Amino acid sequence: MNAIQTSDPITYFNRYSGELEQEEIYGESFLRWTYQSFPGQIALAVAAKRVWFSKWYGRRMDSAVSREKVLPFIKTYGLDPAEFLDPPESFQTFNEFFYRKLKPAARPIDAAVDSLVFPADGRQLVVPDISQADGFWVKGQRMDLARLLGSRELAERYQHGSLLISRLCPVDYHRYHFPIAGTAGAAKMIPGSLSSVSPIALRKRLAILWENKRTLTEIQTATMGTVLMIEVGAACVGGIHQTFSPGAVAKGDDKGYFTFGGSMTMVLMEPKRIRFSDDLLEHSAQQREVYARMGDVAGHMVD
After folding, report:
1. What is the pLDDT along the chain (303 residues), one digit of tens a residue?
2. Known PANTHER family for this protein (predicted)?
3. 3-state SS of the chain: helix, strand, coil percent to 5?
4. How many domains does the chain have?
């Protein structure tokens, strides 16, 4: 297989169509200018990855005038309003639409006791053993687990762990859910900047993942030990909002939501606890993501 180049199109495997598809990137020309040109790199350093920039953009999406963007966005990106819990006309701002709730039937939760489900809609990438991974999005990029988790102790415990990364695009459903039942602790905020988590950016610099603002929650489970769930903020994401209360949670329960922008969740498991689904293993081995929806099966517990 030829090495992925930073300028290559973003392609992924769609679990439901069974085909490779090219991602329609919101703001692609701006992203490529920012991460693939010298002037863009200067702009990135000055403003684009700064928290104030994302807060400013987030306020625009909370303004009454932003409501005018909702219906054109739905039409342009082919979203299905029949899935929405509330009608499109009811949203007073673009952000209200962005973190909308869906009808329960739109995202059924796999009920098998031994399954792990995707926490969010999006493009999914898995790593069965982080210590053996020689590429994230492109060959040669390795994860700095201690910096990602904000703890050297946790990093040592999970250095051979299994990782599920769910990358949300602006066109995706932007609430995230618990991928497994258990007892959830309080979410811990880890401060940082807010760069894009598009592959356009990650192909250039994986360190974005441990430099961006993020939250970490520990989930004590009966079947897979202690599972870590991480939400990663990104450029133009005005906030990571938790809606759960620490304590007992069911698989598929609402955990929180992102306000406007692309974003990402990660689920990190102890070593040898899970066998990921075959399509995830096949495509992730080629640094290719798989599109799948929240509630669908990501893998099963190892006996």
Report:
1. 344 444 567 899 999 999 999 887 654 444 443 444 445 444 444 444 444 444 545 567 788 999 999 999 999 999 999 999 999 999 999 999 999 999 999 999 999 999 999 999 999 999 999 998 776 766 666 778 998 999 999 999 999 999 999 999 888 999 999 999 999 999 999 988 777 677 677 777 777 777 888 999 999 999 999 999 999 987 655 589 999 999 999 999 999 999 877 688 999 999 999 999 999 999 999 889 999 999 999 999 998
2. PHOSPHATIDYLSERINE DECARBOXYLASE, PHOSPHATIDYLSERINE DECARBOXYLASE PROENZYME 2
3. 30, 30, 45
4. 1
Which residue range forms the structural domain that includes residue 214? 110-301
Q: Is residue 75 part of a domain?
A: no
pTM of the model: 0.86
Is residue 174 one of the residues assigned to a domain? yes
Helix (H) / strand (E) containing 155: helix 152-157
Q: Is 174 a catalytic residue?
A: no
User: Does residue 176 lie in a domain region?
Assistant: yes
Q: Please indicate whether residue 263 is annotated as part of the active site.
A: yes
Which residue of the set 54, 66, 115, 121 is catalytic? 121
In a domain, 30, yes or no: no
Residue 245 known to be catalytic:
no
Q: What is the CA radius of gyration of the chain?
A: 18
